[in-house]
User: What shape does this take?
Amino acid sequence: MLGNKYVPLSKSAIQADQPLLFPVYNQQGTLLAEKGITLTSAQIQTLLDSSEIYTLHRSLRSAVTSGNKGDENEGILRLPPPLKRLTDIERILHSVYKNPNSSATLSKVLTIINRLQSICEKSPDAAIAKIITDSNDNYAVRHALHTAILCELTATHLEWSLEKKRNLLGAALTMNISLGFMQDQLLDQPQPLSLEQQKIIQNHPTKSVDMLRHIGVQNINWLDFVSKHHELIDGSGYPNGWHQQNIPLGALLISLSDVYCAKVSGRNYREPIYANVATRDIFLEKDNTEKGTLIEIFVKILGLYPPGCFVRLKSHELGIVISRGERIDTPIVKIVSENSKHPFERKIKRHTSDKNYAVQEIVPGNTLEIEIEHNEAWPF
Assistant: This one.
């Protein structure tokens, strides 16, 4: 049972289509809905059907005294570093994949969307670095998160509406919800896929849509993106073999992000592909179709050397990319000390647009005796 720092909420405390003035928790203290998100009537009903709902006493007091202004300390409190916030998101997403049919699943996904959009807006380089440096053993969870990050950054560049982006992120986070942790099991499986496993994989987009409808997802774009995220413009995709005219741009973007993240993520049976090689492979698929335009934007956003990559410069210095530059091949690099317990003790930054410090090559992080200090490289 919750302690006295929590207070129960009445059903009337949450209003449809109005930003929440306080976070909402269940009886076990699990966060169900983040402060500031907007819920529909159907989503609120799903939330209320799941359990009794609570909030923090101080959050309720602040909402009552400040109206829509939120926490009285907001603006002077410093947010935790991006990695901490992304790690918190991973924990929530893990609980979604562990128990996808829970009545609290939709609220959790909406909370993740809200938090992830905030991080991508304020700390886009840190979010990309999470993809490149992530060592989380749970592939299903980290892959969904990584894919959602790239979808958010690309859709923002395309100036999609907030609502459409939220549904895109929802789809990216839940595209494989019917597989659960099966992806992790397959990574450890030495033998080829069985016929039953092949059938499950072929049908997972359809099964995921069915599960999402069951937990209360009604948005047609969200469901359509999930349904078609493995369809290919030439009709060779699955489960239905749709061609380009039947595949929405959101599904193509999820597919593109999905492929890139799979390439740069290490597996038990192979090392990750270098980021610049993964980008090159994707760029070679560029054509005159809508997908070709999407690929061009995607490459511009990531660059050849995205944040999180170790690189060797023309000056022979070793550095880690901390932010993207003006061109796809001119990132900003922080010089690090090799074989040091304090690799970030040097405060030197190099702008690789200067030809004297041009990037010569990517250096695999696993060949270096350097532990990435994410919070020092991307403190905010």
Remarks:
- The chain has three domains: 1-77, 81-302, 310-377.
- The mean pLDDT is 87.
- Residues 195-214 form the longest helix (20 residues).
